[in-house]
Amino acid sequence: MENSIESSLTTMHKTVIVINLFFVSYSLWIVGAGQSIGNLLMVSLFFLFGVYLSTYTLMNKNRMIYFWDVLCLLSSFAALNIVTYTTGGYYSTYHFLYLMPVVIFIFDGKISLAKAFVNLTTAAMALCWLVQMHMVKHSFVIDDNFLYLLGVIVLMRFEFRILSRLTETVEQKILQMEGDVKIDHQTCLWRYSEFEKLLKGKVLQWKTEGIPFQLVIIDLGNLQYHNSKYGFKTGDKIISGMAEALRNALPSGDEAFRYSGDQFAVFSGADKGTVEEFINGLQADARRVAAKLDIDRLNLLVGCANCPEDACAEDDILEHAMNRLEDAKALVKREKIERQKRAEKMALVGHLAAGLAHELRNPLTSVKGFCQLAKEATGEPTVKGYLDFANDDVERLIKLINDFLLLTKPSAPHLQPLDIIDLLQEIIDFLESQARLYEVSVVMQIPSCFPLVMGDKEQLRQAIVNVMVNAFEAISENGQLNVRLYSLADRIAIAFEDNGMGITKQDISHILNPFFTTKEEGTGLGLAITQHIVASHGGDIVVRSEEGMGTVVTLYLPVLEEKVKHMIG
């Protein structure tokens, strides 16, 4: 492409040169052959056209440049006259030398050279006049033929300048078109063809200079789902929005490309930690784009390859990154299948719970009431103790039924601006007696400034209570539960870190599943309910644990959007 552009421009320049030389040679031949009426008319037309072009160009905004053009024009007359004087006139055998100053003048585009040309030829012209007037008798220096050459020189000079500017304009247009071919208009990122070139360059740079790099492939995993649900216009907005986020988040010196329809590629020279922060920032941007377009969550999948750690050849680096991307896709697919299985299980449980709830609640309520009446009627302490045990079991069954219903048919959260610090403080005060019972101290680390969230206060209260009670039960005597809050780009995080016995690797993958529990009297619904509540708020729950080292449960919740702040502010 570049070679063809250079070839086209070179051909254009050569054409201009040939045309100018032809007109100059023809005009000189006219002058040398005699001044017939037709020849005079032709040269006069040249002259008038040259005056028109000079007037037009002198009105250009770059007046100083054209000022030096005029001076250079006058010096060309002087140079031509000097050659005429020193060679014996226009009819000498040296008349071909007359072309030299004209050609030099026409193709001289540098102001510095024009200045030097003006100074030298003006001095030489003055010297010739002095020699003619005081020392040597010679033909007139200023010959009549200059009147005819004037139009020719003016025409050639300004014709070339205008054609040169037209050529520059064409060159700019061609270069712009070339840039348009390299850049994807929808995303304003480099196209795949440029990606291939840079990959070769990066590998060569590693081999010659030892500069490592990372290749990051970013995939909009569920774009097809959004296209089918919301339409292709929304899909285009997703691509444009993520491309804009990618350009804004790109570390200095890194390059981004549109690798394919729903994939981007990034070459980064940063360290792994910086690249991880960059990817995490893009994940936050994906959530913002989804919220702005009011669509379901975007699944941003990433595959990375490091040169030279993972591979050093072009194909191997690309293959390594794509393999990791496929691993990420497979993981998402497995998680989706697991969620579907959980949903099916919940649907079955919900059906059973809905049928049993009505049948069990009324009898249990009756049993609870009769236990209370029997307790009041008897005077035996032993019997009262038995009735208390029975009443506690009835309440536990009623709570279990309520948990079933909440898990299988959770009510939609009533979202409102919420200060999560105040809510946490209320919950800690509420659970203070229970913490003492388990001999656990609760330490809360509160930042000085923390954003509001959009949430249902009662549902979030239940979610947090479930997590904290789970931690109390997992901690041995004289344990500690640290509650930390920190703010991310578009989310807040509440981390509950205990120093209990931790969770085994076999159990950690099932810890959020309904009915999974390692406690003798546990129902396995606490964290499952918490997960449902947090998910209904557009958040996430992450559990990290190592056996014997304690457990960290982190709840992520979206912050209050700026547009909502203005509405309530």
Automatic annotation (TrEMBL):
Membrane spanning residue stretches: 12-31, 37-58, 65-85, 91-109
Gene3D superfamilies attached to this UniProt entry: 1.10.287.130, 3.30.70.270, Histidine kinase-like ATPase, C-terminal domain
Protein name in UniProt: histidine kinase
Molecular function per GO: ATP binding; phosphorelay sensor kinase activity
Keyword Ion transport: no
One Pfam family of this chain: GGDEF
Top EC class for this record: transferase
Keywords: ATP-binding, Kinase, Membrane, Nucleotide-binding, Phosphoprotein, Transferase, Transmembrane, Transmembrane helix, Two-component regulatory system
Source organism of the structure: Metallumcola ferriviriculae
Enzyme Commission number(s): 2.7.13.3
NCBIfam families: GGDEF
Residues covered by the Histidine kinase domain: 355-561
Domain GGDEF: from-to ranges: 211-342
